[in-house]
Structure formats: C-alpha cells, structure tokens
C-alpha cells in the first residue's frame, strides 16, 4: 500500500543538521506513527513520503520554508530582566511562555547583557535545512475515528481514556 492522504504511516528516522549533528532519531525506540495529510509532520517530509510504501528507505533534505520556516527577526526581542517576574538564575537556552496576539508562545533566551535579556520566538530549527534518513515500516488505512480526530489512535498513537 502506498502512502496517500489519510494513511497511517510508521517510520523510523534520523534527523541531522547540515553539519551532520544528529538532532533527533527514533533509533532504539518505537517508530513514529502519524496520519498522512493532517499536518502531523513538517510539510516537506510529508510531501517526500507520499507515494512510498513499507520497506522503502529514503534520504531527503528539506528546505526551511518546508520545515520550520525561515528565521523571523521580528520574533527576536530585547526585554528587561524585570519582565521575568523575579525568576532567579536566567540563563541562555532557558525557555518561557510569553503571551502574544495569537495566544501563548514559547520563547528561548538567546543572549543576556546586564539587565537586558534577548528572547527568540522562532522555532529552534527555523532557518535550517533538515536532513532525514527514513525507513517506512508500515502503511495502513486510517480508521474513521482517527480521521475524525485528525491523529492516530492505539499503539504508538494517541489514547483517549
């Protein structure tokens, strides 16, 4: 069976940066199971997997526009330390929830100079090409319940209870 809209797909993957650093991997764990065509993966990877079938292996390089987007400088802001409400020991790399016009948004501390803290609201992988080595382990039709909920149920998927 080929991967198509509304297929439930199981994959093993390794994600690396252009410099070869492993950023994420399912190696040694259960496969990632997702519902094709429902935005459960980055768009570029979903597109590359369409038409493939169980047993296929592929290596793909996904551009930022088809992954987590380009870096958006408007999401980088300098804020006073006082905006952190007395949080002790603020360090580069810490993440906080900030309120935006679109609801809560995660920001990462990227720089600290005195009482000025720079936060970045971009996804940590924004602006990067992503390199995936993927092995497709299973492809099946989604159930009606999975389609109505927009995600996979059962082993390796979402459980309601």
In short:
The protein is mainly β. The chain is built from two helices and nine strands.
Task: Supply the key terms.
single chain, 161 residues, mainly beta, five-stranded antiparallel beta sheet, four-stranded antiparallel beta sheet, 2 helices, 39% strand
Show the helix and strand layout:
Blueprint: E1 7-16, E2 22-25, E3 32-35, H1 43-49, E4 57-62, E5 76-80, E6 95-100, E7 103-113, E8 116-120, E9 130-141, H2 144-149
Antiparallel strand pairs: 1-2, 1-3, 1-9, 4-9, 5-8, 6-7, 7-8
In round numbers, the mean pLDDT is 92
Distance between the termini: 31 Å
Rg to the nearest angstrom? 19 Å
Summed up, the helix count is 2
The percentage of residues in β strands lies in: 35-45%
Question: What shape does the CA trace take?
Answer: elongated
Percent of residues in helical segments? under 10%
**What structural class do you assign from the helix and strand content?**
mainly beta
Q: Could you tell me the number of beta strands?
A: 9
Unreliable runs, pLDDT <50, ≥5 residues? none
Profile the largest sheet: 5 strands, antiparallel
| N-to-C series of helices and strands | EEEHEEEEEEH
């Amino acid at each position: 069976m080929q991967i198509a809209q509304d297929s439930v797909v199981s994959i093993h993957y390794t994600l690396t940066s252009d410099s070869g650093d492993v950023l994420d991997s399912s190696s040694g764990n259960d496969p990632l199971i997702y519902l094709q065509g429902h935005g459960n993966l980055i768009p570029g990877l979903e597109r590359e997997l369409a038409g493939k079938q169980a047993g296929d292996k592929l290596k793909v390089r996904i551009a930022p526009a088809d992954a987590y987007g380009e870096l958006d400088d408007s999401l980088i802001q300098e804020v006073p330390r006082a905006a952190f409400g007395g949080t002790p020991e603020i360090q580069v790399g810490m993440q906080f929830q900030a309120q935006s016009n679109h609801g809560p948004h995660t920001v990462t501390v990227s720089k600290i100079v005195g009482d000025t803290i720079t936060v970045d609201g971009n996804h940590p992988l924004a602006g990067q090409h992503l390199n995936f080595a993927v092995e497709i382990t299973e492809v099946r039709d989604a159930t009606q319940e999975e389609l109505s909920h927009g995600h996979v149920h059962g082993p390796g998927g979402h459980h309601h209870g």
